[in-house]
Design a protein that fits this description.
The N terminus is likely disordered. The protein is of the alpha/beta class.
């Protein structure tokens, strides 16, 4: 692991060409207790390496922060503020409330070291913050039931669907999910669309630029139908919370679950181990499409009204470095974005996720309910749930989503 000194020198190099403005940096955030403690250690390390800069840190609860950030960005902005990548940051970028920090990226080689998150941090060819943590989505599977039916871990979607026939014959759900809260179904849609049409198309759809009645959207649902029509997905998913579906995987009543890495703790609490629980990337559907992944990404930004943006940029460069990203992600059991950071090699799921996301060539999506506006996300997720129950209603579902698109994106 690189030394703190290396990262600090890189950060200092960023501002060497401009007059130094040493002083206080105000930082507003919304951490839970564990990441907050890790961030306080990082701030102490930063201040020790940069004694001319003091970081004043103020933490908000998650829900309160969503309202507070809209107020303080307009009234009395801090020098640093937590938020999220992709379309979640777009409103603040478009309203001129987040500062362009492309110079931080250029001076510190971040387009290389943070390459996997570059598309989700870029709007109009510029970078608007620093990503410091994300976690992978993919397919978690029960190794025991794979062995039971003689299924091999698939690399392509056709192989995955072929396995589903083996599981169904054995009375096992090939894919489980719990869509009572709607969002788990969005994870399946994201991967179906990312693997069928690619990242740029997926983001254009989330941005309202593509009709839901487009033939390429229908192609996504045609691939999804290969699981829905034969009854390969847990039948009563609309009545299940995501943890209920996790229990089906634990019990061997289901083989696969499209879910985020936070689910591993639930699987293990149910009795699964590294020997019985496996992880695989969502398989290739269209080989001509670059692999993209869902990986919700947390970020730090400099508000346009910051009083000390020069020193705030020094801190951003520090947080982009491998040492700081290693420290905070070790605490929260998520993944650093800097490819030179280190992860817990003893945790196969953390290790697999780091390798998966660090080598993603096609882009990082933020999950449907972050990438699309809130109203569109809700209507879309209701449609995804309905499709898995009533696939014969696809035309009506897509017509409804298209009418919503035309209204919401005016």
């Amino acid at each position: 692991m690189r030394s703190t000194l290396t990262v600090t020198i890189s950060a200092i190099a960023l501002v060497a060409a401009s007059p130094s403005f040493a002083g206080t940096v105000k930082y507003y955030a919304d951490y839970d207790p564990i990441p907050m403690a890790a961030m306080q250690e990082i701030i102490a390390d930063f201040e020790a390496a940069n004694p001319e800069i003091k970081v004043e840190f103020q933490n908000f609860d998650h829900e309160g922060y969503k309202t507070a950030i809209r107020n303080f960005l307009s009234a009395d902005p801090p020098d640093l503020a937590n938020w999220y990548a992709g379309n979640r940051m777009a409103p603040f970028v478009n309203s001129g409330q987040f500062m362009d920090v492309s110079d931080v990226w250029e001076a510190n080689g971040l387009k290389d070291s943070l390459a996997s998150a570059l598309p989700s941090m870029t709007i109009d060819g510029k970078q608007w913050g620093i990503p410091y943590t994300y976690y992978q989505w993919g397919i978690y599977y029960n190794k025991t039931v794979y062995d039971q039916v003689g299924a091999k871990v698939p690399e392509t979607y056709d192989e995955f669907v072929a396995n589903c026939a083996l599981f169904k014959e054995a009375g096992i759900d090939c894919v489980t999910t719990g869509t009572k809260a709607l969002w788990p179904g969005a994870g399946i849609f994201d991967y179906m669309n990312l693997r069928t049409n690619g990242y740029d198309f997926h983001m254009d759809l989330a941005n309202g630029k593509i009709p839901w009645t487009d033939d390429r959207v229908r192609a996504t649902f045609a691939e999804w139908a290969k699981l829905v029509d034969p009854g390969y997905i847990t039948a009563n998913h609309a009545a299940l919370d995501w943890q209920d579906a996790a229990s089906l995987l634990v019990q061997g009543k289901a083989a696969n679950y499209v879910m985020g890495n936070f689910s591993v703790a639930v699987f293990k609490e149910g009795g699964m181990t590294d020997e019985t629980l496996g992880f695989l990337p969502f398989p290739t559907i269209n080989p001509d499409v670059l692999r993209a992944e869902d990986a919700p990404t947390d970020t730090i930004h400099i508000p346009t009204g910051a009083k000390n943006p020069e020193d705030a940029k020094v801190f951003l460069a520090y947080m982009a470095g491998p040492d700081a990203q290693t420290k905070i992600n070790a605490a929260i059991e998520q993944l650093p974005i800097n490819k030179d950071a280190t992860v817990n090699e003893a945790d196969p799921f953390i290790k697999a996720g780091f390798e998966l996301l660090s080598t993603t060539p096609g882009g990082i999506a933020q999950f449907f309910d972050r990438d699309a506006p809130a109203e569109m996300a809700k209507i879309g997720m209701e449609g995804f749930q309905q499709f898995m129950i009533q696939p014969d209603q696809l035309d009506a579902i897509l017509d409804r989503l298209e009418k919503a698109r035309q209204r919401i994106y005016k």
